[in-house]
Amino acid sequence: MKTKLNGFLTLLLALLVQITFAQEKTVTGTVSDASGPLPGVTVIIKGTKTGTQTDFDGKYSIKAATGAVLQFSFIGMKTVDQTVGASNSINIMMQEDAQSLDEVVVTALGIKRKPKELSYAVTTLKNDDITRTKAVNTATAMVGKVSGLQINTTNNGVNPSTRVVLRGNRSLLGNNEALIVVDGFPSARGVLDRINPNDIESVTVLKGANASALYGSDATNGVIIVTTKKGKGKLSVEYSTTFQAESVAYMPEFQEKFGVGGFPDGTLYPLENVNWGPAYDGRMVDASETLNDGSVWQVPFTPIKDRNKNFFDTGSTIRHGVTLSAGDETGDFLLSLDQTNTEGVVPKDAYNRTNFRLKANKKYNKLEVGGNLSFYRSHANLVGAEAGRQDRPVYWNVINTPLHLPLDQMKNWRTGEFTRNEVSFFRFYENPYFIIDTQREYSDYNEFNVLANANYEINDWINASLNVGYTGGTSNFKRQYGAFNYAFHLDHVYSEMDAYGAKTADQITASTRVNSDFLITMKKDITPDLNAKLTLGQNMRLNTYKEVNVSGENLIIPDFYNVSTRTGDLVGSEETSNYRKLGVYADFTLGYKQYLFLSATARNDWSSTLPENNRSFFYPGVGLSFIASEALPGIVSNNGLSYLKANFNVTKTGSDPGAYATAGTFFAPVNFPYGSTAGLSQSSRDVDPNLSPEFTTSIEAGIEYGLFRNRVTGSVSVYKTNSVDQIIPVNISFASGATSSLINIGEIENLGMELDLNTKIISKGDFSWDLGLNYSGYKSEVISLSEGVNELDLGGFASAQIIAKVGEPYPLIRTTSYLRDDQGRVIVGANGDPIQDSKLQTQGKTSPDYIIGLNSSLKYKNWNLYAVMDYRTGHVFFNGLVDALEFTGLTQHSVSANRQPFVFPNSSYSDGNDGYVANTNRLTSDGGNDFWDAYNEVKENYVTDATTLKLREVLLSYNLDTEVLGKIGIENLTLGLFGRNLLTFRPKDNVYTDPEFNFTTGNAMGVGTQAQTPPTRQYGVNVTVKF
Amino acid sequence: MKTIKLIKSTLLALSVVAMTVSCSDFLDVNDNPNDPSISTPGLTLPVAQTDFAALNARTMTYVGQFFVYNWATPSNWSANQEFPRYNITTTFNTAIFETSYAVIFKNLTYIENYEDATGAVDYSSYKVIAKTIKGFQYQYLVDIYGDIPYTEANLRGANTTPKYDDAETVYKQVIDELTAAADLALNLPGNAENPGSQDVIFGGDMDKWAQFANSVKLRMLVRLSNTGQDAYIKGEIAKINANTAGYITEDVAANPGYSDNAEKQSPFYGYFRNPSTNSQTDRGDYTVATDFTINYLTGTADPRRERLYAPATTGGAYKGVYQSTLLPGTGFTSNDLSKVGPGLLKSHAQDQYIMLLAESKLLQAEAVQRGYIAAGSAETLYNEAIEASFTTLGVPAAVVAAQTYYAQALPNVSWASSPNKLQAISTQKWIALNGTSSIELWVEYTRTGFPVGLPIPAESGGVRPVRLLYPASEIARNSANVPTLTNQDAFTKAPFWK
Asked: What is the overall mean pLDDT for chain B?
């Protein structure tokens, strides 16, 4: 009551003053933005406290004198000043604040700051940047748009997996992925694959550890801050629908010269799965066993064009999204629902998901309370990843079906006269359609996320806020692998696979994550030129995880998948994890005259995963930012520099190990107990009882600039990060009686540079062309590992490993290889065959030297053409897929010499006196199966340049005329045609697949296998209507 | 008014902080609920024993069988190509080295070092068992790799890069350990805990452990036959005689309770057969007989042929094939050939052999023949060995059948008809240990060169390997210590005792 009275008094006083000094009149008008009238806009007479707000229709009315300046302001819009002239009507069109260099960015803990205060590199993507081509997965939609950010789609499929890394890998074996924060809540990594892109207002990328010391150890790898939309303006309803198709973009190259058979002399065996036989010649060959009545199915011995490619379907995604929102200065809400149904390129693969969000916020005087509730559920029904007799992906079965067989006529493995399992071609591996039909995995995932925040203005310079969030996720997984049986056996068969029983497995997981931050923020102008800001905070984190697995084999009732109806033991396991952390932190910024800013951060964490005496760790940071263009206004000109900022920052960040990692343990081996004989084995990992936290120190310097009235803007950042005392299970000599030892070791250094450049190339009337370019280059070096350890094995296979090596970049790929002479030629033996090296040799690094992203937006009237490309180079990739191709005799190189002995390219042989002579005459011992099988043991043959140039996104959209639409009650209608991953350019030696694919989302990057289906492209159409 | 509000809010804020921080045990949630932090020798012993049995039953037997030409690969499989090519690299069957240390010795060392803090219980029985099994396995590591980590091995984090010790020195230290193990087994303290059924090899019968230690020791001593150390050998045999436990009197085998379940089948059996359905595994399909061995057994009218090999699925003949990756596609598929036989694959729950009585008898026969053992008849021991082999393999009316067999006037069958007794002993060992202790056959071939005429695959370099290369893991993780070898060394750098 008191406040209101004060207001009235002020108003009265103001009126009195106005009446005394000027002729006053009533000014009216409408304030609108691009989408229509804008309610809740604050209108004040500049220099006074006189003011009003626009009503629900954006209308306002205020008494003001001619010559007075009306100031219109609204969150997220540029403030407009308008002098009252002769007219009594002033209509204002407000512009979004997005492009302004003075925009506010959301930094750590939701603290909104002006970019000029920041001493580190930040990039913000707006909703539009992410949702233009309607990607279901937010992570995939960020590729190519932010320097320093590398996102790899490691697998195809209806629900692709991604790996998100900022500024390269720092940790050898630990997590290198960026922390994802949604509305202030540090979330699990997968949230970026799950969140509804339509809900996102902006994504701010804090690239370095510098930016993020306030989030604690999770933020060592940079932070991606997702801010969801807030209801704004009058009540609006937006409906968006998308239809998208997905098809295989390209297949590995197959040889189409030679068909089935081969032993030992190119004999044709029609029911073989390997293609070491004679050249295709169109003769009729058996495509099934011969039935007891003598009948047999025959097909021409001719490869069928695109046979393997056509095994894959055209997938489809149908998506509907509705968003209901409204808001003004005192409160807002947003309600959204999104449903996506996907059918994959692998036959019968299906996926659907639902996203729901309710976000609301209300202001009561000095108290603001908000809540954000989101729900996510997904269901996937996929072919088993490791299915059938040999636990292989279905792609293997397809590749093992020779190219002359019409797979599309072989779908009936149950009853087909010549295609049923008892008689069909498939003698060694199952019919791919049998795998598709019977080997299924179902998974459901549900996630609830509840965020609550309260903010209280204690006085005009102290603010307290509390942010508490909870995420609970549960998953259900069910494997149903059908049996492989024979109803009868033929009298004579070429071969016959053994039958096997049905099996099932169930997995249930539950995870929770609680995070709370309590902050006190103080702002004080020490002198008019010197402003100080201090944030003090306390953080608490609790994570829990529980997993229970049961499985049973040889199920006794057909098509009934319950572990109870099995023979043999029930197999089961459980896993529990509990993690807690407390932290206190401070963030202090001192600004001088709005052009010089000094900031300092500090944090202390106490982690449950460290030994009690080493539990506490402290890490500070300092930064400086200088806005030259404001300090020295003389350097600014319309035809030259318009903005210039320089910044420098040094930050240290600490990290803790995973739960339970610090104590040595025993475990019950999988084969125990045998009846009453129980057993416990010592762990293969030895643990240093004195583990200390690991620390990363980042130094960063950068400039940001604007040229030609900010038509050209850009930034340059350079950084150096050093991670020391990494907590790593180093692989140790097996002879020590353990295979790894968890210790603090080593140092990794990353040096990098990032460039961003955005230009408005053309901006004339209806036509505009914006071009954005970003470059991220980085170099990593392993400075040291542990005592006596020069190399560290990170994963992969025995013959193709991903390693870290002292003095070298990280990670490297090391494979079986050939002996080479001093000129790098492959040494062949007396028999002309290349000699395999007894040691594995390093082939190159698997992280790129640099990534360039390019995006272009052309606008003409209501049309918009938008495209994003990215280019990565300087790294290599191991095509493990070739194992399958070489085995089946399908590689193109295996026919390069027409399966005849040949001179091994770029080879030499010993001259008997420690020298080598070029080999021009020694033919290999063989040119068929035997040679190429041996060739397959040398994996260096499959390490290729991983360079790619990808056209990631293309969009052509049309906005219908608002005036016409207004008449039928529609505010906005957009139509769009889009495509993703439409084109990929690869170097000639990569005839296999997308080097972005990987067998894991972990650190062992650079290894693809046949578990990843061929790369796909997506294209579709979208309609968005706003009422 | 304002001040009161400020104080109130600050208090509220502080109480939130206090609520979380004040619970001093808030962070004490790092006790692992998934894996226990303690064990006992009794709980860890069966794990070490079953892992030991499995390594010998699987990898070591498989490698041995191929190197002594008892098994081959059919035309319809691309598996096993490293065998006919003798492609010995640093990734070739590294489990022999790696599993020995990081799986078997890991747990045996834990057992060996375990002491009861109160002193109430003595764990000497466990130490005997740990030392004996370690002796068995170290012997093969030296036989296969030469110099190996020994004195600095198995210290886990305390020494992550153990040095390599001289092969012969290790051999002799192991021999001393076996002597000590047998003595301790026969002189246990009164409060020694007996492992009972947790000992899945002898059920806690410590006299049998003494016999087993003696038998392993004899094998090592006989291995030194070419080194000109007869005095040393005889001296060590005198120590064996002194403890009076003698040698093993039955096949040594492990059985923790193998059953028809995934992961729980007898390890050799489970290599070739699936649980529940009893269908053959892939390996069961691509592991077939060689022509040489089938012909040899057929030529000597050896009824063990039907036990060691199965009749071909197609046609029912006993048929083998040469070791090659270039077999014709017709006539040499897995179903055209003999696979692993019923004398080796009996049941899911079959005992896993570790050392056959036949081997012990043949070792004694050789020791007698060479004059290392003064008492006894080499011929009797030889004949007993053949009878034991027939029995183990389940030949019907085994003893009678064995007698009929060795009564044939054939060299290396009948003792009397054998001009070279040592050749007869080694040749019989090659038959008796087929599929059970096959790694021993390869090592013995390196020592003796028997059996004569054992083929070498055409696609190899023409020389049989005499050793394996150190695993790639050692080259990567222990580079300062691991001796440098080339691929060719696998064929030329013979063990010290050759």
From this structure: 93
